[in-house]
User: Fold these one by one.
Assistant:
Number 1:
Amino acid sequence: MSDEARSWLEGRISVMAALQAGSRPIYQVYVQKGKWDRALQQLKKTAESHQIPTQTAAAAFIDAHAGGQSHGGVIAEVGPRRFLPLSDLLPATGSPFIVMLDGIEDPFNFGQALRALYAAGVDGVVVRPRNWLSAAGVVARSSAGASEFVPMAVAETSLDAANFFRQQGLTIACTSDKQATSLYETDLTQPLFLLIGGERRGITRSFLDQADVKVQIPYGRSFSYSLGAAAATAVISFEVARQRKARKT
C-alpha cells in the first residue's frame, strides 16, 4: 500500500477502538518513551493479540505524526476505514435506525456527530464518497473512538441511499424548517432512514420533495439560525433513543 493510503490515529482511546473494532488495517503502534503505564500495557497486549507490533518512539517522532497535542504519547499507523454494503447496516431484528451524514465538511464536527449517533444506538451510518484519510486522527479523537465502532457504508448520493432503504421498508426522514412537524410529535420508532445535512449545503430540494417525514427541532426561544450539524444530530438521535426505549417499557 502506498504511503498516500496510510494515515495516523492518535491517543490511546482512538487506537484501542481501532484495535477492538477491526475497522481498518493497523500496521504499527508507537508509544512514547517513558509513557508506559497500566493502560498502555493493556493497549500493547491488545495489539499483540492482533499480531500488530508495538514499539517505543521518541517524543519528537510522536509529535511529528500527530495532528495535535492530545495524543498522550500514543499513535498508530493505519490504513483506510473499511466500509460495509448498505444492506449490512440493517439489523437482524428490531426497527432499523440508519442515518446519513451528508455535507459535514469539518472533521471535528463529523466526529462529534458520529459520537452522538453511536451513543444513541444508531444501527449504521451512511456517508458519501470522500477521502477522510488525512483527517482520520481528528475524526477518531473527536468521536472518542466511536468512528471506529459504528458500522458505516458509502452511497454516491443521499437519494441513492434513500431509494435503497425505502425498498427495505424504511421511512425516509430529514430535518426542515418548512412544512415540518415537531421532532417530539413525530413517531420515530418506525424503521427509519434519517438524512442530516451539513451547515453550508443543507438538504437538497429533490430530497425534501421525496421525504416521507420532515422534522423540526423546537427552540426554547426565538432564534433565526439552525443548529450546527453535530448538535442537531445529538438532539435527534437521543429523541429516537428515548422514544424507542419508552415503547419497550
Number 2:
Amino acid sequence: MFLEQLTATRSELLARRGQLELARRGRDLLEDKRDQLMKEFRKVADLVLSGEGALDQVAGAARRALADAEAFDGPDVVRSAAAVGGSGIFLEAHPVYIMGVRIADIEYGPVRRSLVDRGYTLTGTSARIDRASELFETELELALELAARELRLRRLVEEIATTTRRVNALENIVIPQLERETSMILAVLDERERQDRFRLKRAKAQRAHRMNMAGLR
C-alpha cells in the first residue's frame, strides 16, 4: 500500500532528502536547546535546594524569637506591634526568555525595613520584638525568592518535557520514516535504471541481429 502511494521520481527523491536533512537539523537544534535548558534547570534547582535550607533555618529562628518576645514582653504587646507594623509588598511579574522559552520573573519591593519604618514606637517595644520582626521579614523575603525560583523551575521542567517529546518524535518516527521512504524511492529508481539499461542493451542486440540478417541476404 505504501509503494502505491509513494511517487518514485527524482524530484520526489530530492524532496525526501531535503525533508530528511531538515528533520535532522531540527533534531540537533532541539537537542541543543534541551541541553541548555537542563543546564539552567540544574542551576535553578541548586538555588531552590539551598533556598529551602536557608528558609527553614530562618523560619525556625523567627519562631523562637517570637516565642521569646511573647514570653518576656507579653502576647498583647507583640500583637500590638504586629498590627501597626503590617504593610503591603509590591509584586510584579515580567517575562524573561531562556533559549526562546518564556518564563515569568517576579520582582518585589523591599521587605526588610529599618526600626523606624516598622510603624511601632521604639519606646513601647523591646529588642526582642525588633529581632522577631527582622527575622520574619527575612523569612518573607526568602520565601518570595524561593517562590520565584520554583516558578522558573516548574516552567523549565515543562519545556524540557515538551522538547524531549519533540526530539523523540523526530528521532524515532519522523527521521526513520523519511529514511525508509528515501531508500524505497532510490531502490525503485535504481531498478528502473537497470531495466532501462537492459532494454537498451537488448534493443541494440536486436538491431544488430537484424542488420546481420539483412547483410546475409
